[in-house]
Amino acid sequence: MKKRKLVVPLLSLAVLFPSATNVFANPQKPVSIDKVEFVGMDAPQTKKEKSTMYSDATATVTYSDGSQKNFSLDYEQLFKPGDVINGKTAGVTHDVNGNVIMDTVTDPANPKPFISKAPDSNTLLSVNGKSGKLYLVNHFESVPSKIGNLPKSMALNTVQQDKKTGKLTVTDINLIDFSEDGGIWTPCAGSLSPWNTHLGSEEYEPDAKSHELNPEKSAVTEFARNYYHDQSIIGNPYLYGYLPEVKVHPNGKASAVKHYSMGRLSFERVVVMPDNRTVYYGDDGNYTMMFMYVADKAENLSAGTLYAAKWNQTSDKNGGSANLEWIELGHATDSEIKELALSLKFSDIFETTEDEQYAIKNGFKKVKTAGKAEWLKVKPGMEKAAAFLESRRYGALLGATSEFNKMEAVELNKEDNKVYMAMSSIKGGMEASSTDPVDDIRVSKINAGGVYELSLNKGLKDLNGKKIHSDYVAATMSGLVLGEDLPAKDAAGNLAHPNKIASPDNIVYSEKMRTLFIGEDTSLHHNNYVWAYNIDTMKLSRIVSAPDGGETTGLQAIDDLNGFTYLMVSSQNPGNVGYLSGLPSLGEKNSKK
């Protein structure tokens, strides 16, 4: 009989809960877990608490025989950027040849590696099943630099698990190579696919139109020159803004591809439906769009059909509600879109004008995407290029809604056939506007944002009456868990209700615990928190506090990994203490079965 404990690890932080398969209330009579209830912690009060990543929450486990046990949530740090593991430094960035990029500007006589303070996305996975080796894929979203925009980093960490306590230890770090695709651009959130691969993201895709106007000075060119160590090169914006997929092989090596056929946008966390073909995205930024991808084959995202949503509002209450319709943007394969990306520039795909009268007379359409209004017309024969290289602009031309604001992570509740979507702030394009080209979304402003619920149906057709070959098509959308703005800053420094969510970003769902975990990226709370929201009871509990200034990132809920349940969490760019310095390992508070 295994002893159980509740632990919390970080860069990756993990909260361990008892597994239903390994917890026994009576050694002679095995029982199952009936439910898990989180008992939240208070907001941090002291200076130490405010500058520390910690959990002081508990979980009450009710068993099928009616008995209950209380478990304290502990916190354990796995590692932090700058740590040296097996001779390798965490959080560094690499050039095209896999060499660490060094800072030779700050102290030329003593070069040091550029080190990110922005870890994001934790995907803990087992290769070869329960008896296999464990690996953790994590992102480093940004890198401070004095030499311009640097390539970002995605790492594969080798992990050992203590089979008795569940404690995780990172023993090695290796670069994940994206040299075949020009490096990795701003990797943000990520998820584990049903077929055990890591699905990442490239957030805030570079604007190809702006780049073409001044390519010598663009951030894409800075990125490329630092990546290739070639000051004559001009960057290509169409190489960035895609969904990367990482496969970890039995020998511990990782291979990576970018899925060009899934469209180009500001990717956040994606989630795959139970058919292993249908995928929903988060598109971060302002005036963004909701996308759905239906792959041709299960467990293969290299070819498929891309759709964009139209919001048909039914209510402006509780964050707004709508019926959703889907517009097909096109069908493509990765290889054909990558070929277009390598050969085209923005002006090859679109005609543009600033002359409104000329635009109206010559078939242009005014759209507003990524906060910019512009007159556009697709050049003849460039529809596929527009659909997959400029997905948001092309979707807007076809009538899809491009008014979402700070659309973040998405997640699946398989049993209830629901998808959850975080909107970090409900404002901007989501408010009523008489000046925008289109005004589909007209809801009240909530700076603190909210989480929406999407209901899935089968047998649906797209806006043109064509059958959508998926049984998991989102048909309705409505507010589920909302933040609440305060009229003025309170005594603790909060601009949003301290006992409600603010600026939800990362979200993950535990099927066994019927709990949605919500991580914040906000300046509206004095500290950022992770919350546990029970789907059935609607109880919201604060369970983790990040150091002040630090966003909570990298959420991953793992219901059972060799008898342990983990909640992975990171914090990026904390303010007062540097990244995770001085964080205590709270140890084992409860080792009862």
Automatic annotation (TrEMBL):
Domain of life the protein comes from: Bacteria
Keyword annotations of the record: Signal
Signal peptide: 1-25
Alphabetical list of PANTHER family matching this protein: DUF839 DOMAIN-CONTAINING PROTEIN (PTHR35399:SF2), SLR8030 PROTEIN (PTHR35399)
The protein's name in its UniProt record: DUF839 domain-containing protein
Organism placement in taxonomy: Bacteria, Bacillati, Bacillota, Bacilli, Bacillales
